Amino acid sequence: MKIIDGTNLIMGRLGARVAKDLLNGEEVTIINPEKIIISGKIETITEKYMEKRRLLNKANPEHKPVWPRAPHMLLKRIISGMMPKKTVRGKQALSRLKVMAAGFAMDGAATIKEVDGSGIERKTTLGAVCTRLGWKGN
C-alpha cells in the first residue's frame, strides 16, 4: 500500500502516476489533496471547472455530469478520468484508490520527487480552486 502526501505535487502528473500504479495492482492512498498544485492562473482554472459544472444534457437536464466541489472528491474524479472505467480491470483499480480529506496525517507518507511543483511560477492549490467553486471546507 502506497501512501502519498499531496503537498506541493502537480495534479496532472500525480494523477497519471497514481493511475498507472492502480492499474498495476497497488493500493494507493493520497493525503492532503487540498495542497496539490495546479499550474496556471486561478481565474482560468476556476472558469474551466465552472463551465464543466454548468453543462446540461438537453434531453434530460437531470443527467448532467457531476463535478464535485470538495478537493478529495474532485481529485478522485480527475484520476478516474485517466482510467478505463468500462473494463473490469479499470473498475477494480479505481476501487483501490483512497483520497483522504483534510486533517489526516499518516506515518510513512511519501512524496514523489518527479512530480514536485516547486519550480512553477503561476500556480494555485486545489483547495483554493475548490473554495472558489463553493466548497465550504477549511
- Secondary structure class reads alpha/beta
User: What distance lies between the first and last C-alpha atoms, to the nearest angstrom?
Assistant: 28 Å
Q: Which segments are poorly predicted (pLDDT under 50) over 5 or more consecutive residues?
A: none
- What is the chain-wise order of helices and strands? EHEEHHHEEH
**CATH level-four homologous superfamily name:** Ribosomal protein L13
Summarize the structure.
With 138 residues, the protein is of the alpha/beta class. The protein has helices at residues 11-23, 42-54, 71-80, 88-95, 126-133, and strands spanning 2-5, 28-31, 37-39, 97-99, 123-125.
Describe this structure in words.
With 138 residues, this protein is α/β, with parallel strands linked by helices. The chain has one domain: Ribosomal protein L13 (Ribosomal Protein L13p, Chain: A, Alpha-Beta Complex), CATH 3.90.1180.10. It has 5 helices and 5 strands. α1 (11-23) packs across α3. The longest helix is centred in the first third of the chain and has 13 residues, at 11-23. The model has no long low-confidence stretch (mean pLDDT 88).
Helix and strand topology:
Elements: E1 2-5, H1 11-23, E2 28-31, E3 37-39, H2 42-54, H3 71-80, H4 88-95, E4 97-99, E5 123-125, H5 126-133
Parallel strand pairs: 1-2, 2-4
Antiparallel strand pairs: 3-5
Task: Jot down its keywords.
single chain; Ribosomal Protein L13p, Chain: A; 5 helices
